[in-house]
Design a protein that fits this description.
The structure holds 2 protein chains of 2 kinds.
Chain A (H helix, E strand, L loop, with lengths): L4 H9 L3 H32 L4 H16 L2 H14 L8 E3 L2 E3 L1 H27 L3 H9 L4 H31 L11 H12 L2 H30 L11 H6 L12
Antiparallel strand pairs in A: 1-2
Helix pairs in contact in A: 1-9, 2-3, 2-5, 2-7, 2-8, 3-5, 4-5, 5-7, 6-7, 7-9, 8-9
Chain B lengths: L5 H12 L1 H20 L11 H6 L1 E6 L2 E2 L3 E3 L5 E2 L1 H13 L2 E6 L5 H6 L5 E7 L2 H6 L1 E15 L16 E5 L3 H15 L6 E5 L2 H9 L5 E5 H10 L4 E17 L4 H16 L2 H8 L9
Parallel strand pairs in B: 1-5, 1-6, 8-9, 8-10
Antiparallel strand pairs in B: 2-3, 3-4, 6-11, 7-10, 7-11
Helix pairs in contact in B: 4-10, 4-11
Classes of the chains: A mainly alpha, B alpha/beta.
């Protein structure tokens, strides 16, 4: 096996400026798209519960299309397809020192819209998991819809939304690599550019895999922290040993009540 | 004496006594001459390296997004001058040719991973490539910038690209040249070139077409091809630059194949097939002696 260890260590621990820029862009893309996607998903989920039939229909169509087509197709469609048909062109936006290229904007739009469809279903499930008695009780004390949603239902739904949300962000970190096909210089494209210059495919792809593993593991810790603070207590079995939980044998020992 | 004429008459008797043998010998000789005449093409046969001969085919890796050298027709069949050259070499070796379509940046890795025997894909002869693989030169090429018809940004060459967006295919020489030019700009305090990198050459062309790039960097041959196909949409901006040799790539340990390829190219040039192929695709200006 021809593994160039000196090359590997050098590029792993001394990444170039463009590589770090790609890493930064990947994180920014993921965070921004996930945030926008969650916001879109929230509005879509609430719209699904609306009395207005056309509104429910629009959301159902949106979720159907965005979940039913591949993300790669959506990215190319939004950036290149719309421009080729002269329907819409993404132009670079300059905000003082920072320029947001057109393809980065298109990438964020595509990722957010796609994520919004999945988040809509997750949030809808979270809201449905809240005891209907809560809504009835809130109405009976005279709360408005907005108040009951913000104070009663959504905080309780959040406990059931957080684990799938963590899952979605993990997927988002990796899906962000797909925007490389429209020329966004994120981490994967930076790796591919370097590979074409040095021909060291195995070493460089091992490095980018490790970088992504670090990102997703880091997110895993953050998710654990969020769950500990806001999550559903019974979802964290603390006393049953790993073997018992995995294999299902042995007696179930009661989890210690939260302090 | 009867014995004087012994051997000759005996052999004459033997000769005369077996007319069928004579006829057969005569027919065989005539047949050989006929075959040699028929295989005037095969007279230019080149001995295939043992590995290729044993497999009965030679596998080429090529990026089929570079017309007129290698591209796919409407039936997704590989066509182009490189395809014709590769197929002719296979014919001289007496084996079949198999073509694999691989993105440009993945060609050398695929060759090193033994996914193919040779790379024929307008691969430029560069020192960095020679460190990793062996190269057999077979024609010339140069770089060009393609812009929208009318040249709205008045681009005449690399020096005019400060602050402009240029689309290129990943792994190409023009990508390196643009990178160097961009560095010259930043060193001189001017705006760098915004180089947007795409996996396929056709993706990069599309960016120019839909107005998302100011220029598209590619080889002169490909640029001229598109300009000829849609003169109202594209034009080559300024003169071609960076003339360079184009080569077939082989693995360093595959010296038998490298030698056989060199012989095959020489044979192609000798019997006129080489010039015929280049002229068919309008590339006779790129011939090497």
């Amino acid at each position: 096996m021809h593994f160039d260890w000196p090359f590997f260590w050098r590029y792993l621990f001394e990444p170039s400026q463009s590589y770090l820029a790609g890493l930064g862009l990947t994180v920014v893309l993921s965070v921004v798209s996930q945030t926008l996607g969650t916001a879109i998903g929230l509005f879509a989920a609430l719209a699904r519960l609306s009395r207005l039939r056309p509104l429910r229909g629009v959301v159902r169509a949106y979720v159907w299309v965005m979940r039913g087509t591949p993300l790669l197709v959506q990215i190319v469609f939004i950036y290149t397809g719309l421009a080729a048909a002269d329907l819409f062109r993404f132009h670079d936006i300059s905000l003082g020192l920072l320029t947001i290229p057109g393809n980065v904007q298109a990438g964020i739009v595509a990722l957010s819209l796609n994520e919004g469809a999945y988040m809509a279903e997750i949030i809808r499930a979270g809201i449905a998991s809240v005891d209907p008695g809560q809504t009835e009780a809130a109405k009976s004390v005279g709360m408005t819809y907005g108040l009951l949603m913000r104070r009663i239902v959504l905080p309780q739904a959040a406990r059931f939304i957080i684990p799938p949300l963590g899952n979605e962000f993990n997927a988002m970190l990796k899906n962000s690599t797909l925007v490389s096909v429209i020329g966004v210089q994120e981490l994967l494209l930076s790796t591919e550019t370097l590979t074409s210059a040095t021909f060291r495919v195995f070493e460089l792809y091992s490095i980018v895999a490790l970088y992504f593993l670090t990102l997703t593991t880091g997110w895993g810790f953050i998710q654990g922290f969020i769950e500990a603070k806001f999550g559903e207590a019974s979802a964290q079995a603390k006393d049953a040993s790993a073997v018992r939980r995995l294999l299902g044998f042995g007696r179930w020992r009661e989890a210690r009540p939260p302090a | 004496m009867a014995s004087n004429r012994g051997p000759s008459s005996a052999s004459a008797e033997r000769r005369l006594a077996r007319p069928s043998l004579t006829l057969a010998a005569g027919a065989g000789l005539a047949g050989c001459i006929a075959l040699a005449g028929l295989s005037g093409i095969a007279a230019a046969q080149v001995a295939a390296p043992p590995a290729v001969k044993a497999a009965g085919k030679i596998t080429y890796c090529s990026d089929m997004t570079g017309p007129p050298l290698e591209f796919l027709d409407e039936n997704t069949k590989p066509v182009g001058s490189d395809i014709d050259i590769g197929n002719d070499i296979a014919k001289r070796f007496g084996v079949k040719a198999e073509w694999k379509n691989i993105p440009f940046k993945g060609l050398v890795p695929a060759l090193l991973a033994k996914e193919c025997d040779a790379v024929i894909s307008q691969l430029f002869d560069k020192p960095e490539r020679r460190k990793v693989i062996d190269l057999v030169d077979y024609m010339n090429s140069s770089e060009a910038l393609l812009v929208r018809a009318g040249n709205p940004h008045k681009i005449k060459g690399l020096e005019d690209l400060s602050g402009r967006k240029v689309a290129v295919e990943n792994g190409t020489t023009i990508q390196d040249l643009l990178g160097e030019q961009s560095k010259k700009f930043t060193d001189a305090g001017k705006k760098p070139i915004e180089i947007v990198v795409f996996p396929k050459d056709t993706d990069a062309l599309q960016q120019l077409q839909i107005g998302q790039a100011d220029a598209y960097g590619t080889t002169l041959e490909t640029g001229a091809y598109y300009m000829q196909k849609s003169p109202k949409t594209f034009e080559v901006a300024g003169p071609p630059f960076h003339q360079i040799l184009v080569a077939i790539g082989t693995r360093k340990e595959d010296s038998a194949l490298t030698a056989a390829l060199e012989k095959a190219i020489a044979a192609m040039k000798a019997d006129g097939t080489y010039l015929k192929i280049l002229t068919k695709w309008g590339l006779e200006a790129d011939k090497t002696p």
